[in-house]
Amino acid sequence: MLIRTGLLIALAVFTMNLELSYSADRPEVRGTMQRVFNSLMNLQPFLVNNDRFSDPKNRAIIEKDLKELSAIKHAFPKKMKDEEPGAAAISSLFGDYLKDVRSRYKHGDYEYARNRTKTVTGFCFGCHSRITTSQNFVDLSKRVENLGLQPDEKAQFYAATRQFDRALKIYKEILASQPSDEMGMIRFIRGLRHALRVTVQVRRDPKETYELLEGISKRKDLPEFAQRFVSQWKKDAKAWLDEKEEEKLTGETLITKAEKLIERAASLQAFPADENGDISFLRATNYLHEALDSDPKSPHRGKALYLLGAAYYALQEPALWDLDRLYFEACVRENPKTDISKKCYQRYSDKIYLGYTGSAGTFIPEDEVKKLMELRKISE
Ligand code: HEC
Question: Which of 67, 79, 128 has the most ligand 1 atoms within 8 A of CB, as the residue to mutate?
Fold first, then answer.
């Protein structure tokens, strides 16, 4: 997968936390979100139909709504470096993603632009799965039912806008169905992954997670690779279920716990993108976000950033596939000349080399090479 140069400009990563108080301080976040939500709704009828999406008659309105979506980037400016970097990092990736979509749309690359716009909900979920508020956006949902979305698209839309009960209900229906062809199987497996992100990351509920997997592990109609990771996930959910309730953990304990989970998850992987470790990786991100949110100035912050990078690297979330790199970069910049900074630089550069290596060799753009050199110097 090639890394676009545009992504690099965004960087230097940083920062805000996602606690409820944040948006209370900044009502413009809410205002932006409501506009973004409306634009996403407006776009749906075009997204389900390529003729409508590519019809020149609809151009002005589609371009307007795509532009409106980009507003998110401005709602999350770079801020103090001692806050949790996640939201600013996600919003920066989101900004680059939309820039690409808008330019491809403009050049008539409709199928590509349409598919990419369909998956922007991954970014919405990326932030909203971590906001510590119980408020769901149900009141905004009325129009969704009539949009003609496929069940998994509808569920994703609900999850992205924090209507988790509705989303889970649909995922469970998908998971109770018998896929009749390859596309059905793809939707089934994707539905399973998304459902687990809700039960593990949002709800943090070992029982619900275990029950979901227990049901699926009995199925013999799934492809072998899926049976393999379902069986591992079930074991991990069981281990989680059997852990005794702990009192509220503090920063360092949270990080240590996450580190153990990541070690365990990595040991389950047979290759870097192997999904076998996902339940433990997902759980680890919860503890790490919690640690950084509760104590952004922790002396273990560098380690937490490193571990977050490692977890997101393994999870390979399509929308957030570059998030790991932003965590590694934040870790290098914040901890010059330390061991952790060297480790983070190593992971950062591995990702770059891999990203630019294809069948024809390795070609790294010049600005990317400059950045590698800069980060190496900071780390050493
Ligand atoms: C960079 C992080 C981030 C991304 C990306 C993001 N959001 Fe949000 N969103 C937030 C935060 C923070 C809040 C405020 C939560 C609160 O105060 O409860 C929020 C709240 C909302 C709200 C509720 C607004 C209200 O009236 O309270 C809606 C609707 C919403 N987002 C829609 C979306 C949609 C649709 C997308 C994707 C296109 C999206 N958001 C992407 C961070 C994000």
Answer: 128
pLDDT in tens, the chain (380 residues): 333 323 322 222 222 334 333 444 567 777 888 888 888 888 888 888 889 999 999 999 999 999 999 888 777 766 544 566 677 778 888 888 899 999 999 999 999 999 888 888 888 888 887 765 555 565 555 677 777 788 888 888 888 888 888 899 999 999 999 988 988 898 899 899 999 999 999 999 999 999 999 999 999 889 898 899 999 999 999 999 999 877 778 888 999 999 999 999 999 998 877 899 999 999 999 999 889 888 878 889 999 999 999 999 999 887 777 888 888 998 998 899 999 999 999 999 998 888 888 777 778 888 889 999 999 999 99
Q: How far apart are CA 165 and CA 318, in angstroms?
A: 23
Nearest CA to ligand 1 atom 35: 37
Displacement of CA 107 from its chain's centroid (Å): 28
CB 162 within 8 A of CB 135: yes
Q: Please name which of 183, 185, 65 lies closest in space to residue 113, comparing C-alpha atoms.
A: 65
- Nearest atom, ligand 1, residue 91 CA: 1
